[in-house]
Amino acid sequence: MQQMAQEQVNERLSRVAELMPTEGIDAVLITPGPDLRYLTGYDAVPLERLTCLVVRPDASADLVVPRLEALAAAASPAAHLPRHTWTETDDPFALTASLIPEARVVGVDDHMWAAKVLGLRTAMPGAVQVLAGPLLDRLRMVKDADEIAALTRAGAAIDRVHEQVPSLLRPGRTEREVGGDIADLILAAGHVAVDFVIVASGPNGASPHHEVSDRVIEVGDAIVIDIGGTMPDGYRSDCTRTYAVGDPGALYRERYGVLQHAQDAAVQAVHAGMTCSAVDAVARDLLTDAGLGDLFVHRTGHGIGLQTHEAPYIVSGNDLPLEVGMAFSVEPGFYDEGRHGARIEDIVVVGPHGPVALNHVTRDLVMV
Ligand code: ZN
Ligand code: ZN
Ligand code: ZN
Questions:
Q1: CA angle centred on 232, ends 75 and 187, rounded to 5°
Q2: Are 246 and 338 found together in one domain?
Q3: Which-ligand-closest: CA of 314?
Q4: How many distinct structural domains can be found in the chain?
Q5: How confident is the model at residue 2 (pLDDT cuts 50, 70, 90)?
Q6: Do 16 and 85 fall into the same domain?
């Protein structure tokens, strides 16, 4: 996605305004972070000084900005919104409160720093604060064509990194060395930031969020590699493949076969109208039938966009029906403490005719 157009900013702000009455919210307050970037294209740096977008039910919106950030705000796609600048000795919370004197229920973004939440609370003693997340999630969960194109580019970029991973894996190298090389490749593939690099070899594979360690890779290790970064437009990649250095053994290969089937079945099942819970069940039931249910210790997936983890969450109990345009990971795994682990993860978009996978690098256990 190129820089957001002014019309797109206005359209997203009016959609927020449309949802405010149904959520019982009189004003939405948004500080720098993914929600601000989504609504206005303004990628403001989160700082101790208050920058705050104020959205009212009539879809009018103002931006409260510190004087020294005014030029950055004016250069952003939010430039057309009325700006209220404050200088170092002003009270930005009182300024924000003065823009919405009638508001009784104020939605604050889920990522707002506590210092700001409490500052705004003090400045608006007659208002109740609620989370704006549920309202904003309803918009952000369903991606438009530009966003799907952005996620597709992110998926292709991380695929290029995975294609090069086998050449990095050799017995005698440490997880940290491999992880450093992968971080360089993530940037070389077009990302502007490395969000995470998990190189979990041998028994470390049993810890789903292991990052890297000084463990030396040995012959017979399975290695879970889960990597992701941020593209210049803010959209994220996230893809896991599992590799083996030499033969990881018959038990492992058998379990991996079950996992590969479960992951593929869950991806293929995705369609509009299906619940998030049902997607989780497809993968979980197949692993459970093979005796691996207890080793699958996390949900099947998470939404992705301007954040790596966002709604919708593909988890048991989430009865949210999938809609065309939703994008999320399908990433079942098995984690056998002290022994080994595996995970296969693709980003999938709900298309009009079923699932569209954004990662294409082979899901087979690649033995190097
Ligand atoms: Zn994760
Ligand atoms: Zn993920
Ligand atoms: Zn991942």
A1: 140
A2: yes
A3: 2
A4: 2
A5: low
A6: yes
Task: Calculate how far, in angstroms, residue 210's C-alpha sits from the geometric centre of ligand 3.
Answer: 11
Distance (Å) from CA 330 to ligand 2 centroid: 8
Backbone φ and ψ of 275, nearest 5°: -85, 160
Average pLDDT over the chain reads 97
| 53 and 202 housed in the same domain | no
* pTM reported for the whole predicted model: 0.96
Distance 235 CA to ligand 3 centre (A): 14
| Helices 276-289 and 250-269: angle between axes, nearest 10 degrees | 150
Smallest-distance ligand from the CA of 210 = 1
Of the residues 140, 173, 198, the one at which a domain ends: 140
| CA angle, 165 then 168 then 172, to 5° | 140
Instruction: Give 84 Cα–ligand 1 centroid separation in angstroms.
Output: 39
Ligand nearest to the CA of 347: 2
* CA-based nearest residue to 186, from 178, 177, 194: 194
Q: Are 35 and 12 contacting, i.e. CB atoms less than 8 angstroms apart? A: no
Average pLDDT of 145-161? 98
What residues does the ion ligand 3 have nearby, CB within 5 Å? 226, 238, 240, 345
CA of 136 to the centre of ligand 1 (A): 22
Check which CATH number belongs to the domain holding 62 and give it: 3.40.350.10
